[in-house]
Design a protein that fits this description.
Layout: H1 2-31, H2 34-41, H3 45-48, H4 55-75, H5 83-99, H6 103-108, H7 111-116, H8 118-144, H9 154-174, H10 185-196
Helix pairs in contact: 1-2, 1-4, 4-8, 5-8, 5-10, 8-9
GO molecular function: DNA binding
Protein name: TetR/AcrR family transcriptional regulator
Keywords: DNA-binding
Length: about 200
């Protein structure tokens, strides 16, 4: 009986997290009140507080979800043998993932997350650092195989990889998400790949 209750709580927390990500996508973090999140979850605000102590805890859960999803993207290329194929798959999957979740950039790039709240900033930094290290490991595999430029610093290549995605997302946000983020995927990938290929 106890296990069933715990599972129900975990499922409800997941539902609230998903609802919060949706509301943030529509209204930003400041507009994502607990009333709005509870409504999107199909529960009362009072019931929401049975699962999360406050709004900050909900935002932390959203950031954890983003981190888990990015980890799954990294894991999805485990069967591929070519490091460059791995990077291409991750690059395209990342942009596709973001296009389907407007709330992600509105969470990660919000002032409240990266400026105003130390706890949230620390959590975002940890999430991005783990993803960065996963990409960097694949980059170094590519350099050892002689596919990627060995004279370039692996950390710099990783920064270019994430920075290319970041630039595309920033422009997408400035256009109020009115365009398809993935329309540029192929061009962006080819530009990145050209810049880091091993020089013959």
């Amino acid at each position: 009986m106890t296990n069933k209750k715990r599972e129900t709580t975990e499922v409800r927390q997941q539902q609230i997290t998903e609802a919060a990500l949706y509301v943030i996508g529509q209204k930003g973090i400041s507009g994502a009140t607990t009333v709005e999140i509870a409504s999107a979850s199909g529960i009362s605000e009072g019931n929401l507080y049975r699962h999360f102590r406050n709004k900050e805890e909900i935002i932390k859960s959203v950031i954890d979800k983003i981190g888990d999803d990015l980890t799954l993207i990294l894991a999805s290329v485990a069967e591929l043998t070519d490091p460059k194929d791995k990077l291409e798959t991750i690059f395209k999957s990342h942009l596709l993932y973001l296009e389907g979740h407007v709330g992600i950039p509105r969470t990660i790039f919000s002032e409240e997350t990266i400026v105003a709240n130390d706890n949230l900033r620390t959590k975002v930094r940890s999430t991005i650092s783990k993803y960065f290290m996963g990409i960097k490991e694949i980059v170094e595999q590519g350099q050892k195989c002689g596919i990627l430029d060995e004279e370039m610093d692996s950390q710099s290549i990783t920064s270019m990889f994430i920075g290319t995605i970041h630039f595309a997302v920033t422009r997408w946000m400035m256009n109020n998400f009115s365009t398809k983020l993935t329309d540029e995927t192929e061009v962006l990938w080819k530009c990145f790949a050209r810049g880091v290929n091993r020089k013959s």
